[in-house]
Amino acid sequence: MLIDLNADLGEGFGIWRLGDDAALLDLVTSANVACGFHAGDPLTIRRTCAAAVDRGVLIGAQVSYRDLAGFGRREMDVDPEELCAEVLYQLSAVDGIARAMGGRVSYVKPHGALYNRICRDPEQAEAVVAAVADHDETLPLLTLPGSVVHGIAANEGLTTVNEAFADRAYTPEGTLVPRRSPGAVLHDPREVAARAVRMATAGTVTAVDGSEVAVDARSICVHGDTPDAVLLARAVRDGLVSAGVTLKAFA
């Protein structure tokens, strides 16, 4: 059993720091680096990419809507051509910095509202896929199982990779419970680790109504901005290893 463990990193901005990137980079196999539109700035991106390269952690571009004030978690209606250009801009910027640090962007993971939007909106999904294809059609796209973006990406020759979330609650439909809902984010390390192990070994997760939902994930995410994210990531990593799962990046 092979599982990639990823986290959202580089989400500070200027003098403000969010999360413990250095500690998380010692635990994960892939780093979703904020590209400056929901968080991050050139210096933060450079430092995060350099630290990931030093540890042999793969770098992903975490593209988002242009929404610093809302941390990229607010739904936006962006013209498809504009969205394509903005995703291409973010991806190209982080890839350029990563290459200067001795690495490269190895995959793309949309963030927040954009991530959820392309699960159900073909037009927005097509814009994101077009941007990735314009930059490098060999880059995989990380997304939820069952997303509409899977078929759109396949039509353009792009690879998609299924992702699950250890620290998020699920609906019976296999989507994430909205963050504003009670219990949407999980904080108990033992619970989060147990869910991750079940995702990796059984391919299922228990939804909020008690039903079992198939996830079939190759990568599992722990959010870097969650309080005690390092404790959660360490618990997940230890739990997976104890269950006989090999931690290996998908890209």
From TrEMBL:
Biological process according to GO: carbohydrate metabolic process
Catalytic activities: 5-oxo-L-proline + ATP + 2 H2O = L-glutamate + ADP + phosphate + H(+)
Enzyme Commission code: 3.5.2.9
Keywords, in A-Z order: ATP-binding, Hydrolase, Nucleotide-binding
Function per UniProt: Catalyzes the cleavage of 5-oxoproline to form L-glutamate coupled to the hydrolysis of ATP to ADP and inorganic phosphate.
InterPro entries reported in the protein's UniProt record: Glyco_hydro/deAcase_b/a-brl (IPR011330), LamB/YcsF/PxpA-like (IPR005501)
Oligomer and partners: Forms a complex composed of PxpA, PxpB and PxpC.
GO molecular function annotation: 5-oxoprolinase (ATP-hydrolyzing) activity; ATP binding
Name recorded for this polypeptide: 5-oxoprolinase subunit A
Keyword ATP-binding tagged: yes
Pfam family, one: LamB_YcsF
Keyword Nucleus annotated: no
